[in-house]
Amino acid sequence: MWPFDAVDWLTLLAPFAYLFVLVSSLYVFTNVYRSRKAAQAASLEPWFPPHLQRNIYLSLLEQEDPKVPDSFLKAALLRRATEDIHRIVQIRNAKGALQVLLQRGSVGDDLWQRFQRAEKEIEEELRDVVNEANAFAPNWGQTIFQSASEMAQNTQIRDRLTDILATSESEKSWWDARKAAIQSSFMKELDEEKKSPLTADTVLVERGGPAEKGGKKKKKGKA
Q: How many Cα atoms sit within 13 Å of 175 on the Cβ side?
């Protein structure tokens, strides 16, 4: 009976050994693939430039001697949230167009990975800002982005008005130069007419002279 039992055990162990080798291979392959993808994603260029407002806030927060007043920290945190609003708007505006281009094959996976990483970073940034705001005042995290949105809109309106005023000034300068050129051309034409020997009176006299002589001759003939 012993040889038959050994054969049965070997027959049962063979599939388990095959499954163990297969699962181990898949596990190793998955870990290596994820490590490569993580390294590739880390080497990609960030979607946004460095967050200057966040860095300023963290620098002020870590300063101990002298300690920065809370009013300054709150203002720096609000400016940080305002910059986050600008980035959220850019993310929302770019996502739809980027998805369409990705489906058409017009952009590569690298650009999509950069965008996805930017989405995750902005989500973490929003949570961090909310936590920091609640640390200063209870429930401030629920309203800080509303205030930041109003500040962003005011800044956009102010920039737009500045552009309009700059455009109107340039248009005014253009019209002034145009009017000066038209006036100069008109005065030049008047000067040329004054210098010309053939005036309107001369033309009338020359045109009327022969007719008058002919009329007098006809009268003499009748007499």
A: 6
- Domain membership of residue 16 as a residue range: 1-43
Q: Which of 201, 205, 51 is nearest to 122 (CA)?
A: 51
| Domain end among 99, 118, 142 | 142
CA 206 – CA 210 distance, rounded (Å): 8
d(CA 27, CA 20) in angstroms, rounded, equals: 10
What tens digit of pLDDT does each residue of 112-127 get? 889 999 999 999 999 9
Q: Is the pTM of this model over 0.85?
A: no
Question: How far is residue 103 from each of residues 115, 118, 119, measured CA to CA in Å?
Answer: 15, 20, 19
Number of domains in the chain: 3
Are 84 and 148 in contact by the 8 Å Cβ rule? The answer is yes
Considering the domain architecture, whether residues 132 and 178 belong to the same structural domain is answered as: no
* 210 alpha carbon, distance to own chain's centre: 79
Q: What is the pLDDT of residues 16-38, one digit of tens each?
A: 677 777 787 777 767 666 666 65
